[in-house]
Amino acid sequence: MALKCGIVGLPNVGKSTLFNALTSAKALAANYPFATKDPNVGMITVPDTRLDQLTEFVKPKQTIPTTIEILDIAGLIKGASKGEGLGNQFLANIREVDAIIHVVRCFENENVVHVEGGVDPVRDKDIIDTELILKDLETIEKRMDRLRKQAKTGKKEDVAAAEHGETILQHLNEGNPARSLDLEGDADELLKELLLLTSKPILYVCNVDEESVNNGNSHTATFQEAVKNEPAEVIYISAAIEAEIANMETKEEREEYLEMMGLNEPGVNKLISASYALLKLITYFTAGEKEVRAWTIRKGWKAPKAAGVIHTDFEKGFIRAEVIRYADFLTYKSESAIKEAGKMGVEGKEYVVGDGDVMHFRFNV
Fold first, then answer.
1. pLDDT at residue number 73
2. C-beta separation of 206 from 13 below 8 A
3. Which of 126, 135, 163, 338 could cross-link with 81 by S-S, CB 3.0 to 4.6 Å?
């Protein structure tokens, strides 16, 4: 499955700088609003030491990691929900993504202007939340016209649907994002059907100065307190540090620089780990002489659905899955040794794929 995330935030908070660093792309990074007009699109290769280890054991002709598609979406200002600035385009781009990476500025720099006149990440977050909620209110109010008319028929299901809609409408009117609404059954189904912007999972990225990348600062402390009750992840990244890492030629240079900065890993690794956790994603592998490859699926998927990520025929004609635990690959170091040890499992349609499983699917179409 192709994962798509959108980087959003006010102008001049470091979105495009971070995008460039994460994807090694060359998007325009400029010190004025709307430097990004159309969404730049880049790919992040998902680092995975398990894939590297499997490659060492199997020695395939090629190794294919999984990727995340990143959209750097134009900066948003007050009034975007009414078309101000690049509002309509911005909001349309958000509809396309699986998750939102919301960058908030948590660093001081008098040479980088702020569209609101000063650094205040909580205010910046509220501006974007407000614009997205206002757009969602337009969506739900249009739907409510139909739901209320249908409810007049007196049918139990129509009345219930209208009541569910009113619950969602009230929640948004109170200034709350749809993702913080806990619904079940038909009410939850209605919420999903509406495709509201604020129902998308969100990862907050606090863009900090180099000194604050490990422990944060006063801005991040205030921000963390403001979002503590949200169903969201928060991480600290210094776009400036990521830009330095992206420009380095060798792995040794990058490792030395990370050690100097007191970091265990680059920000892209933190972002990917947080995104996977937020979206409840895991990775399984296929391994053979032609290729060793990583595949991204949702946690809890059963074997046939996981096979369908490779090709729909694999799901339609699924017979069984031959499964090797990654830990067994580490122990026995080859498929033949694993088979001899009786460690290869043969699983049917009800098997729930685990993170790190090495899979071989048998199918017939």
1. 76
2. no
3. 135
Give the per-residue pLDDT at 118.
87
**Cα(111)–Cα(108) distance, integer angstroms:** 9
- At 47 the pLDDT is 87
CA 107/CA 9 separation, integer angstroms: 14
Query: Following DSSP, what letter does each residue of 63-124 receive, concatenated?
Result: EE--EEEEEEPPP--TTGGGT-TTHHHHHHHHHT-SEEEEEEE----TTS--TTSS--HHHH
Q: Which residues pair with 101 in a beta bridge?
A: 7, 203
With a cut of 50, list the residues of the chain below it in pLDDT: 25-37, 80-81, 84-87
Angle between helices 218-226 and 121-151 (to 10 degrees): 20
| Predicted local confidence at residue 28, as pLDDT | 41
What is the model's pLDDT at position 225? 96
Asked if 270 contacts 44 with a C-beta cutoff of 8 angstroms, the reply is: no
Residue 220 tokens read as 């991040």
Distance CA 148, CA 135 (A): 20
